[in-house]
Design a protein that fits this description.
The chain is of the alpha+beta class. It folds into three domains: about 230 residues, no CATH class; about 60 residues; about 130 residues, Histidine kinase-like ATPase, C-terminal domain (Heat Shock Protein 90). Helices cover about 70% and strands about 5% of the residues. The chain has a five-stranded mixed β-sheet, with helices on one face. Strand 1, helix 11 and strand 2 form a beta-alpha-beta unit. Helix 3 packs across helix 6. It is elongated.
């Protein structure tokens, strides 16, 4: 689950001179024409409006903290609030729930929304996109995940980022509005005032208005000149707030690769033991029985040819059963139909082995790489195994699509979707093999997401590079 970072003028986390150089380049890129400067002013005005959303989480937390402080202080200062004004009974419970729970929850949720807006603006306006390695298979329980989502370290980090971005948007937007809008509007108003004063015959009021007429356009020009730099500081700030520095991303990726490598080693060892067990308990025992049957037939050949022929027929049946056992073992490795005919033929075969009815829909205009086909096939097989073992589903669907436009590496993505109508609540710690699937998909730079609300079934989506 690697990400892609397209740093269109974003800071690279270097020292101050490097940051200033990047700021200059970004400002030149976004401000080389007056039209672009005007667009930069409009962007800052939009940021000024959005600063209300950015600062709202901090305001809610201040209100909550103020309530907590007053709740702790007021009992020691009984005369501070007039008698009868202290909330009691049900009203006190409602007030405590509002300020102690509702406001902090609203603050963290709004902060996440604000940070999402900031990242979306970076992507849609400036083309700066970064997807961090996600962990869609969080090993914590659903209650723990919900608590961390609302009150975990990441939630408070979003609040801090939102407030910092809000302060910057408020200051930069207010500066742009004050210089450009107020300067231009003030100059136009002063010009009308001069005309009105001349009509009324009051030349004494013209001098002050002339100063505004001169200073207003200069302020507007200064604002237009500063606007690209203010936008560049916003880009750098949001880039630094929401996206890690390159060395941090590399370190995080190395840790991620190390963990996934250990899990893949364990999975390979478990698969080796499974194959060894299947061969020992199945094919090996049947081959031993086959050898003993043939030995008995040879000893009976001279004395009782009919009995010997019956033993040979029995050995023939046993040989077919051995061949079927070996096919079952080999089928878990790499089926022949996948190599010869690809996913459109292999996925229905995998679905046919499932005890749960499966509907298969494959639309691929061509064949992806052999590695991509192998990963996609094993994702479907493991997902259907999970459906049969853990979901209590009555039906499932499997779809394979080619999505995305062709890239320099090839032809976009193979999107595998496996969904069921079971009980949902998929838990990777319950032995469902989700970690193994995640590692297998991640090994080819793909992404795996699992949506499994309790009681609403499970949908597993794997996006695998076409030329993996």
């Amino acid at each position: 689950m690697t990400g892609h970072d397209i740093p269109t003028g974003a800071a690279d986390g270097g020292p101050l001179p490097s940051a200033l150089a990047n700021l200059s380049r970004v400002a030149e890129a976004y401000g080389d024409t007056w039209r672009v400067r005007l667009v930069a002013v409009l962007h800052l005005m939009t940021s000024l409006t959005l600063s209300l959303l950015y600062l709202l989480p901090g305001l809610l937390l201040v209100m909550s903290a103020t309530w907590i402080g007053l709740t702790l202080i007021l009992p020691w200062v009984p005369d501070f609030v007039p008698a009868g004004r202290h909330p009691t009974g049900v009203s006190r419970i409602i007030a405590d729930a509002l300020f102690l729970l509702a406001l902090p929850v609203s603050a963290t949720l709004l902060a996440r929304l604000a940070c999402r807006v900031q990242r979306d603006r970076l992507g849609s306006v400036f083309g700066i996109v970064e997807t961090q390695p996600p962990d869609p298979l969080d090993p914590g329980g659903r209650l723990g995940r919900g608590w961390r989502f609302l009150f975990g370290r990441d939630a408070w980090t979003h609040v801090a980022r939102s407030v910092v971005a809000g302060v910057h948007a408020l200051l930069s937007g207010a500066l742009a509005v004050a210089l450009v809008v107020c300067g231009g509007a003030g100059a136009m108003g002063a010009l009308l005032g001069v005309m009105y004063a001349l009509v009324l015959g009051d030349p004494g009021a013209v001098a002050g208005l002339l100063v505004v007429i001169v200073v207003g356009p200069l302020a507007a020009l200064l604002g237009l000149r500063l606007a690209p730099y203010l936008v560049a500081t916003e880009v750098m700030l949001h880039r630094g707030l929401h996206f890690d520095a390159p060395e941090v991303r590399v370190r995080r990726r190395l840790l991620h690769v190390q963990d996934s490598r250990l899990r893949m080693v364990d999975a390979a060892e478990a698969e080796r033991r499974r194959i060894e067990r299947d061969l020992h308990d199945g094919a090996q025992q049947r081959l031993l029985a086959l050898s003993m049957t043939l030995t008995r037939a040879r000893t009976q050949w001279a004395r009782d040819p009919d009995r010997a022929l019956a033993l040979v027929a029995e050995a023939q049946r046993e040989s077919k059963e051995v061949m079927e056992d070996l096919r079952q073992v080999a089928r878990g490795l790499h089926p022949r139909v996948l190599t010869d005919h690809g996913l459109p033929s292999a996925l229905p075969v995998a679905a046919g082995r499932s005890p749960v009815p499966v509907e298969v829909d494959v639309e691929l205009d061509g064949r992806p790489s052999a590695r991509a086909e192998g990963v996609a096939y094993h994702v479907v097989c493991e997902a259907l195994t999970n459906v049969a073992k853990h979901s209590s589903a009555t039906r499932a669907t499997v779809s394979a699509r080619r999505v995305g436009r062709p890239t320099a590496r090839g032809g976009g993505l193979v999107r595998i979707t496996v969904s069921d109508d079971g009980s949902g609540g998929a838990d990777p710690e319950a032995g469902t093999g989700l970690y193994g699937l995640w590692d297998r998909v991640d090994a080819v730079d793909g992404t795996l997401t699992v949506h499994s609300p309790t009681g609403q079934g499970t949908t597993l989506t794997a996006d695998i590079p076409w030329e993996a």
